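User: Second chain of the day. Same drill as before.
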Amino acid sequence: MILSAMFVALISVGAFIKIPIPVVPFTLQFLFTMLAGLLLGGKRGGFAVCIYIALGLAGVPVFAQGGGVGYIFQPSFGYIIGFAVGAFVTGTIANRSNRPGCKLLLGADFAGLGIVYLFGMVYYYLISNFYLNSPIGIWPLFLYCFLLAVPGDIFLCIVGAILGKRLIPLVKEGRL
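Assistant: Same format as last time:
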């Protein structure tokens, strides 16, 4: 339970460590949601991210641009939903082995990354085109919501795999 609470706090802090790029800011949220899945497992990691989302929707300003129920109508909210599903998938894949290797961890991280971007881009497209009445085409969506942000997240996948390789045994042994 303590580790889950720690990841809720880390994800919240990660939202404010950001590099501004057009449309969707680059934050460290993905790194911490991915590590939640790797270190806590799929269910507990996904649950920790869901607690983070619930806090944000309750009005605690833990999202990159604030908080509250109205955040659901932000085009970037799909990435936040993707964080929960991505943490679950990352943790489920990585914890198939008691001592996962870097290849398995990197594969799990990339699977989670794909899910985050899938949820984020689909949600962004739907909210922009059908709710905000601010249409965005497929190419601008791909450019701004994927190409500009994914290099940093690929780097975070590598960092996450390296950290996971070192930290997972500590968590499983109860030393962390």
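The CA atoms of residues 81 and 119 lie 7 Å apart.

User: Great, on to the next one.
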